[in-house]
Amino acid sequence: MKKLKSTLRFFTITSVLLIALFPAQAMAQEKEIDDQKIRASVETELMLHEDVQSNNIDVSSNDGIVMLRGTSPNILAKDRAEKITSAVKGVKGVINEIIVLTPERPDKALKQDIESELFINPVTESYQIDVQVNEGKVKLGGEVESYQERKLAEHVVKGVKGVKKVENNIGFKVVENRPDYEIQNDIVYALENDVRVDDALIDVEVNDGKVQLSGTVGSLAEKSQAIVLSWTSGVRSVNSDNLNIQAWARDELIRKEKYLDKADEKIIEAIQSAFDLNPRVNEVEIEVESTDGMVTLQGIVDNLSAKNSAERTAKNIVGVHTVNNLIKVRPEIPDDITLEKEVTESLLRNPYLENFEFTVDVNNGIVYLSGMVNSYFEKFEAEEIAGSVYGVVDVANNIEVRDYNLVQTRKYEYDFHDWDHLFPAEYTKSVYRPGITDEDLEAAVESQIWWSPFVDLDDLNIQVDQGVVSLSGTVDTRVEREAAVKNAYEAGANMVVNEMEVVY
User: Is the pTM for the entire model greater than 0.85?
Assistant: First the structure.
């Protein structure tokens, strides 16, 4: 096993270095990126994420349209592979033909688990959803209040082991007779205030509640986020066929107006507006204060997911530097025995965690998790699952990771591949090998950062000394700063010294 791990780590470094052979400056001048380079970058990114089992996935690219073929152990991993691919510069579309090979389960048992999972979730428990199951294929019906609620319900269902496919026929209410100009203003406002979207070249048109997005964005991940933000109240459909993807769209001159300092009252207004679109927090009163972009959240919620989601939403708003989360979680706590049973069963239903043994202890609503898993992804998947059960006030995650081959780990507070953010934190492993030269490591770091749609390489200085990577220079947002550090670790850094300055 150790020999296999070492080989994998060597192959990862080799893949990154192969991509780095193409000079970043030359690539930056190209309007179209070579398909071979895109394929190599996608395969490298998939390999760096333990949750997708990249060894079973084949990648091809044609004019920036990436085809994923192969097998996946569960539907979440299939979706995750697509999202990771979407966050590679130059990818214009993804055709996901990965086959889900999950163990067969009786339809009756699978339906019961799905309904149980929807019921114990503090958000979806109130939804009126019809569930039908046929040989692992799930059809969802019923009606919810919004597009975001519809997507959340689908995600909860996909988190049940045995689900092969989900056909989401859930309807959602549309506010009738809402003026098109109001819808358009809401969408433009949301795009302007989200750090994940460079909106300067995006045009928004609304006709009878039907939204048309056109123009240019820098990545497929950015385009996906723009679509999500467009589903505001009163929207009937969103068409993004004319929203083109070009890597040059991240040019600093195009972006500079977005990241100017914002007045605190504007930041507060933007956060509260974003809360309205978030099904985890839109029904609760959360007080927002801001002093020079340092935001404080206060209030009382009845579930831990709402607290965590409020913080995540605030951090994605332009102008926010830090978030102090003082929200209190006060649910109607079930007795500890009942809560322990519900958390344990929810962990067993998760396709990533079903093969691990966990000990779950509960004391006054606080869940204590212990056990052993293979990766930090699994450790924090368990934390997310436990925190999504109604009645949980907090989670003490004492799960250990079999990290005998991990040289360095690093905590990240942003999931770059998912609009709904599955995890309270994300860890990445270093693939550092003592034999790699500092020159090769610097080239690999430059390559990783160049291929990221979240970071502008031109504004960064990279120095490497005995495997320690020092990053300095300026970035536009906290998200960009975190992404650069993550890229450096993925390239093979043994340690990263972060001296980057965030400027707006």
Answer: no
In-domain check, residue 26: no
Length in residues, the chain: 504
- DSSP assignment of 232-273: -TT--EEEEEEEEE-GGGG-HHHHTTTTS---HHHHHHHHHH
Token pair of 371, please?
Answer: 């056990």
Kindly list the distances between the CA atom of residue 207 and the CA atoms of 145, 182, 212, 241, 242, in Å, as whole numbers in the listed order. Answer: 21, 11, 8, 16, 16
Whether residues 352 and 424 share a domain: the answer is yes
Q: Which of 198-202, 214-218, 245-249 has the lowest mean pLDDT?
A: 245-249
User: How high is the mean pLDDT of the chain?
Assistant: 84
The CATH number linked to 363 is 3.30.1340.30
Instruction: State the Cα–Cα distance between residues 97 and 252, nearest whole angstrom.
Output: 36
Helix (H) or strand (E) holding 409: strand 409-412
In angstroms, rounded to a whole number, what is the distance separating the alpha carbons of residues 484 and 302?
A: 35
The domain tally of the chain equals: 6
Which of 116, 149, 172 represents a domain boundary (last residue)? 172
Q: What is the pLDDT of residues 386-438, one digit of tens each?
A: 999 999 999 999 998 886 444 344 444 445 445 444 343 344 444 545 567 88
How far is Cα 105 from Cα 422, in angstroms, rounded to an integer?
Answer: 25
Please state, in angstroms and rounded to a whole number, the distance separating the CA atoms of residues 33 and 19.
12
pLDDT top residue among 445 and 479: 445
Amino acid 19 reads I
- pLDDT at position 199 over 70: yes
